[in-house]
Write a structure and sequence with these properties.
The chain is of the alpha/beta class. It is 42% helix and 16% strand.
Length: 389
């Protein structure tokens, strides 16, 4: 069976979200399937041979074009609808798109597309004009109607596809994502790859001593970071014993975040609110191990990797009770209404003050995180591909 895969999401300099999903899932698929012939399509004006060589295996080959992305997307794919990507790969039985993109394919090829979320339809106000224009130009409804199978990463995303785009439910299959961090056999084991000096340097450089409240994700309005800062302020004001608590906000700078930085600048505890920017996986490991609690008060998620990662690393989790997050965390996290910052404050107080409850959440979260593996996700994808043979 010949399977085409759009790996343009792997052109990102840093992997997060969809790019990390695609990389981890592809690795798991290649571990399981040694018989299918995979053809991986990319386009980049830059020379990425060194980066992409890792995806060439015995039964996979990277094939690409070197056209500036804007010209390739708008002129060739959207307007001219040439080249047909599946034909540029030499012909495939199934073509899988792990994310929305401008993609012109021939009619004979079976089409599979993954939908991570429809946040841009639910909350267009959270996105920049440029991003909303991009989503509109993609004509997502038509793309999904032309697909043979749509993979949704959660029941919530499936429901949104049906409700917001009026797509028939029968062609949508829910396949949960895996956990980006392998779960240790023993929760109390110390990671051997955390080099002591590098860990100490990271902590000292970023003033991360003390008790840490951790958020990890893009700095953008959908993540509700402004409310988290408000909740942190309330927590500090209410109790002097929390004076050693620091709020750590780790993640790349996104868009429309002036309100977030305004809240930070106005906080009387600004010096204890630390923006780290994009961090490596090594640095994530350090933060998960150093922090007291993980907080994820997002207004909307298609799946929600960070709470799952945090649970697998032995952190108690506070997260929103909306969209897909209840599907991911189950009863293993303390859920709050993201529209009420006071609930975030109360949840933080509970976890900090109640050691028994905290330990219960840690154990439940750790067990919950074991349910999500990339091997399981890959097996379900392979079943979809084979069903279209």
């Amino acid at each position: 069976m010949k399977i085409g895969v759009d790996i343009r999401v792997l052109m990102d300099k840093y992997y997060s979200g969809v790019s990390q999903y695609t990389a981890n899932l592809l690795s798991a698929i290649f571990e399981l399937d040694k018989t299918s012939d995979y053809k991986l399509f990319y386009n980049s004006w830059n020379n990425l041979d060194l980066k992409l060589s890792a995806w060439n295996h015995d039964n996979s080959k990277v094939i690409g074009l070197h056209i500036p992305n804007k010209i390739f997307n708008y002129l060739f794919q959207k307007i001219l609808m040439r080249p047909k990507i599946d034909l540029a790969l030499g012909g495939v039985d199934v073509f899988w798109s792990p994310h929305f993109n401008f993609t012109s394919l021939s009619e004979k090829t079976k089409k599979v597309i993954t939908v991570h979320d429809l946040s841009f339809l639910r909350y267009p106000e959270f996105f920049s004009v440029r991003k909303n224009f991009w989503h509109k130009a993609l004509n997502i409804k038509k793309t999904l109607e032309n697909s043979d199978v749509i993979i949704a990463v959660s029941e919530n995303t499936k429901n949104d596809i049906v409700e917001l785009l009026n797509i028939e439910s029968a062609k949508i299959k829910v396949i949960y994502s895996g956990n980006n961090i392998p779960v240790e056999a023993d929760l109390n084991i110390t990671k051997t790859d955390l080099k002591i000096k590098a860990q100490a340097d990271f902590i000292n450089k970023n003033n991360l001593k003390g008790r840490l409240i951790l958020y990890l994700g893009t700095i953008e309005p959908r993540k509700n970071i402004a409310a988290l800062i408000e909740a942190y302020n309330e927590l500090r004001i209410k109790n002097e014993s929390f004076s050693d608590l620091k709020l750590v906000l780790a993640g790349a700078c996104g868009w429309k975040n002036k309100k977030i930085y305004k809240k930070w600048n106005e906080s009387p505890y600004k010096q204890d609110i630390i923006f780290l920017g994009y961090i490596s996986q090594f640095e994530r490991d350090i933060l998960y191990r150093q922090s007291l609690v993980f907080v994820y008060p997002s207004f909307y998620e298609g799946f929600g990797f960070p709470p799952l990662e945090a649970m697998s690393q032995g952190l108690p989790v506070i997260c929103s009770n909306v969209s897909s997050l209840p599907e991911v965390v189950g009863s293993a996290a303390l859920m709050i209404n993201p529209f009420k910052s006071t609930e975030i404050t109360e949840a933080l107080e509970t976890i900090i003050n109640d050691e028994t409850f905290r330990e219960m959440l840690i154990k439940k979260g750790y067990e919950r995180s074991k349910l999500f593996t990339w091997e399981k996700t890959a097996k379900e994808y392979l079943e979809v591909f084979k069903s279209l043979k």
